[in-house]
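User: My instructor asked us to take a sequence, write out its structure as tokens, and then describe one feature of it. I'm not sure where to start. Here is the sequence I was given:
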Amino acid sequence: MTTPLTGKQRRKLRALGHHLTAVVQVGQAGVTDAVVKAALQALEDHELIKVKILEGPADRHEASEQLATQTGAHLAQLLGRTALLYKQRKKNSKISV
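Assistant: Let's start with the prediction itself. The structure tokens for your sequence are:
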């Protein structure tokens, strides 16, 4: 992961992600390999995704940070049990911050 996002970049990503629905769900097993794989695929497809975090072994803060770290994405927002992750595509990027 590169440099952390600035407040202005986070604000832009939150605005872009407001209307999105969660495409990945972290279940009771926590951040598993399958969840990481699904998140990586979703990030490659969309660049900006929402992740729903259910009750699990780790709390929502730990789970969202762990998923962001394992996917190489930025955690743009954690609101309640929903995390907003951003990872810019190498080619044909639609979102620039």
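For the description part of your assignment, you could build on this observation: The first helix runs from residue 7 to 17. Try explaining in your own words what that tells you about the chain.
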